[in-house]
Amino acid sequence: MKTAKGEGSVRTLSRALSILKAFTWEEREMNLTEIAEKIGLAKSTTLRLLTALEEEGFIYKNDKTNHYKLGFDLYYLGLIAKESMDIRSISRPHMENITHQTRETTNLYLLDYHDRVCFEQVESPMAIKRTVRIGERFPIWAGATGRSILAFMDRSIWVEMTKELVKLTEHTVAEPETFIQELEKIKQQGYAVSVGEKDYEVGCVAAPIFDSTQKVIGCLSVSGPKFRFPEDTDLFAKLITDAADKISRKLGYHAKSSGYE
């Protein structure tokens, strides 16, 4: 049985953590009133918690403005956490879940300059399936995997990639204006779909992965034979975007209100 003292300690810890989590990319500095209102506590309680966090180096107070922001010790702990992150181990459970639900192959690709490189794969259990060699690379202008990454890169790279477009199949998007429009659509909806564009007999849905610098670093995809690929890709898109978002957040990404969700 928990003691009253123990329960009080847990509640205090929970409240202190809620203060740290109240800071966002849009609200990096706040005053006492703003913090108290955001976490739903009295200002006296909030001030007591802020003082304790400041003493431990987790909160920094600017005495001139009376504004608070996250302290250096949190930055240091964040660096340790970042170095401990392994994108393969973070992604693998999500990839296995997607393959289990779709019965199709799930791949993790990482960005390498203007190429996407296959980094990890969970193969479909079906006899006829889509597989990719680990380490395989291809330009980011081609197919859903590449375009799901490219769409979240600088627009100047979009224009640069239009100069490399070539027809791989009759379905390849190789007309510059249409290509740019497709990238804009992908950026708006958060994922890319291609059927028979890079490989004639393959369908694919892919979503971008971001890291703590808020930049795209790769993508997650599910792909399978064209004859088995669903015309309605909503389920595949939801599975892929949800997993990509969870992986991104594990890597330290925090979506801004006007950006990718």
UniProtKB/TrEMBL annotation:
The record places domain IclR-ED at: 73-253
Q: What UniProt keywords apply to this chain's record, in alphabetical order?
A: DNA-binding, Transcription, Transcription regulation
* Cited PROSITE patterns: HTH_ICLR (PS51077), ICLR_ED (PS51078)
Pfam families of this UniProt entry?
A: HTH_IclR (PF09339), IclR_C (PF01614)
Q: Name one GO molecular function term.
A: DNA binding
Superkingdom of origin organism? Bacteria
> InterPro entries recorded for this chain?
ArsR-like_HTH, GAF-like_dom_sf, HTH_MetabolicPath_Reg, Tscrpt_reg_IclR_C, Tscrpt_reg_IclR_N, WH-like_DNA-bd_sf, WH_DNA-bd_sf
Q: Which residues form the HTH iclR-type domain?
A: 10-72
Extract one GO BP annotation from the record.
negative regulation of DNA-templated transcription
Coiled-coil regions listed in the entry: none
Annotated function = May be an activator protein for the gylABX operon.
Q: Which protein are we looking at? A: Glycerol operon regulatory protein
